């Protein structure tokens, strides 16, 4: 340990920590707390002390005028996939948990992360632009708390490998010396023997660890149809590089490889590695990593396709590589199994999101699929040695390693054994295990959970958390967002097209559906709900929603929810008393799903709001299904309509009844009056106690009558032998509808054909 005394010689301190980082191939964290200008000056001292060339330094700050590479904090994600020797993060302005995680991930082994903060005792009480984003109407910045930063400060003061300088008092509070837990370098990569190797030797020579070469060897299975390879790793282990080496190797052989990821940026490393390998092999014909399209001399290709288009593209290709699979919804992951061979590469704990839908929900379906599944896991860090204190600090500070309780502790949980409780931010801060379990379940609830979500959970005034616990362990959680209760000026602003954060349902109702009064009632939107995977489908989610309904019945006008619509989710919310009031008319870019909004009223004002929007929804949905929602999945349409909690009358004239009866019981034609068939179909699909139709018949109603698909397309999709057969089936399907809804005139007309 270097003795520095109380003199804040930042240059000497940085030199000592840099020497230690180089000796261990780890990283170190230097915190410069105090006045912002003094912190920037001290950061320059740190750069000098660390003896880092200017072109290896990045300042992440809103300030301008540096000789170093500078990145705006809101663009910190641009550092992902890059490596820097020293990064300075200015936390005085535009600071966020996301920026911290992304910046930390860019520091290379032997490097320093320098954090500029206000005085640590004052920092939790400071407010900046991130806090302003948390202050959603009707709340103000004064309602935002500083709990996240308070917790962050406590980790800075006690975590190994963190040096802390109090600039205002001129003291070194912690020198950050740390030499414990240092491990030797990871095992070197292994090159399989030529007779056992499919990929070129050069690909293996580009591997940096034994883990990476083993993953590349597993990825050789992509050359043969019927295989699925799962590659899991924490961030910084080289899984994307291994995927790129595999893609380049396949393209060099002449294969057409489709690569998909949540966004192009996520796939950048895959293409960089593939391009480099093809160049080294002399096999690159054209294109480039920046274009996300590489052509090989052999005729092979590596090309990026967005997730919503990847299934169709991969079906005609030779292989599909999915990077950051955990950040994609299960429905899309399942569709990728249409590819001849597919690799799912997923980050287990990462700064871009820690969604574990892949591991928890999709893996069982993959194992049941007709695929030979190969697993590979990368544990050895590539850019720094194991035991790196900056990595363990970011995992701890941002809860990247938060997990729900182990299965054995909650396996016996039932709706009768659990207790309902409020988990306040103070409760969570007072019990680290409780915080980790609750946040770990929230991670499971969504396909992308970011570090910023932890800050929102602890500080946002509009959020509240409810849970079920079994013997003290969290088994189910729901994160609720307060909405509505907006003043007239705010409602008018929304009506005129202004966006209001944190008020999803009032915003949609007001700006899109033209209901200026929708922001008056107060509601709670279920942002996320999750039940421990060991006891899923045992009624715990419904029990939690029931408790929430009882608790808020006297304090709010409604409960709401918005989500990517699937038949299963629509049915779950319907069974819990929520009714459909809206379907979005555009697909989510990442999930590829249309969103559904559903409501459960708690007061007369909430019931009025629900009823009028349910009625408006039924009034327009028939037209929308034939237009913007013409490609909506038929089962999603069936489930969404079944969940509309408002009666719909077909209101057919005597003439229209004669046409419908003639087409069902007699020789008439559907095309004579399709509007009558549409209204009658909607009446059936929105009636709780429906006439007896099979699911196939209901899909026929949706596809042909509501979505006006061509007869040949409908017949093909629903496996009719001919369009004539589909036409006869439609007539047959309307017979029980005539019997159920028909007027006296309709029944008289029916008797003519009996």
Biggest sheet: strand arrangement: 10-11-12-9-13-14-8-15
Helix/strand class: alpha/beta
Specify the overall morphology.
globular
Low-confidence stretches: 1-6, 351-355
Mean pLDDT: 92
Number of helices, where a helix is a run of at least 4 consecutive DSSP H or I residues: 29
Q: What's the main sheet like?
A: 8 strands, mixed
Query: How large is the share of residues in beta strands?
Result: 15-25%
Radius of gyration: 30 Å
State the share of residues found in helices, binned by percent.
40-55%
Distance between the termini: 99 Å
Q: How many extended strands?
A: 22
Describe the protein.
Strand 4 (84-90), helix 3 and strand 5 (107-117) form a beta-alpha-beta unit. The strands form three sheets. An eight-stranded mixed sheet has the order 10-11-12-9-13-14-8-15, sandwiched between helices. The protein is α/β, with parallel strands linked by helices and 754 residues long. Helix 5 packs antiparallel against helix 13 (389-398), helix 7 packs across helix 8 (239-252) and helix 27 packs across helix 28. The longest helix is centred in the C-terminal third of the chain and has 22 residues, at 604-625. The protein is built from 29 helices and 22 strands.
